[in-house]
Input
Amino acid sequence: MESELLSKLRTKDDLDILRGELDLLENALYQTNTLYNDVIKNDIRSWVSEIILREGKEDLKGYIKKIKADLLKLPVLSASINFEPSNSFIEKMSIWLKKNIDEKIVVDLLMNTASLGGIQLSYRGKYLDLSLRKKISAELSNLRLNTSNK
Amino acid sequence: MGNELLYVLIGLISALGFLLVVFMMLYLKSQKSVNGLRNDLDNLKKDKVDLEKGTYEPVNTQARAIIDTANRKASEIIASVQGLSEQEKNVLTNSFQQMLAANLRDYQAVASKFSQTYDGFVANIGRDVRTRLDTGLNKVIADAQAEMKQSTLSVNSAIQNLYKGYEAEVSEYKKGILSQIDKLGVDIIKQVSLKVLGKSLSKKEQEELVIKSLEEAKKLGFFE
Output
């Protein structure tokens, strides 16, 4: 059964934060009950702790271990854009990716103002440059070729 | 007294006879010279006809070949010039050919006529085009005249080589200019395009462009 936590992840940052929270919680499980209670209340986001307590109530250690292993398998799309994305845009982009590519995909958003627009993608060892800079350069190259041929 | 007068008369008659003989001898000698000169004159006339018919003919043939070559090159140059109508080009070509054809006859009169026609037609075309036309036609004339003096059959190939050199020079010049314009144009267009486009897109347009790019990537099979 797939954890609800994974479906809520949108970005690589979300994934890293969740992994950190799971590490804290896992370490606390091997310490005292007081520490565990302290971590679950103060160091874990509330919606995350709610899902963890609900889904992992029978075997919390095993649940956390499985979630951490699943996190490593999530497909990550690296994407360079030239502006600081708003929260709503990240949401919009994530919905598009989960609907069209993979329901578990997370995006690693990077900023590259030199791209001028569009997006530069890296996914499963492949790279694709759909930036505005690349398109303009291609158009100019065609223009230069046409001029030389004349 | 009678005998003395007789002696004088005999002396005078003898002197007259001697003078008559001398005159006769001089007449015969001059007549011989006149006949010799007449023969010389006849020979000279014959030589003149022979020279006109035979000796000068090869030279005239060469001259015609040179003029034909010059006419052809002038026609090519005039035909390639921009800014003149086809009718004007035809008149200009004919006028130029008449000038060259009359080169050995009434050159000045025909050259003057050509100059008037030429000035009239090229007055409306650009200075640079006219300069090229001037240069091209002057070169044709100069080449033709130079080859006339040499009167050799190798003139055609010499003009061809010169013309090819001229064409190559123009071609290199054009290529260099185009290269410069191309280089300059691309740099400027590139910089301006990047700056303008990079700054002109709104945040919403940037976001839509990202989503469209993702759709394009999917169509390209990037995620498969």
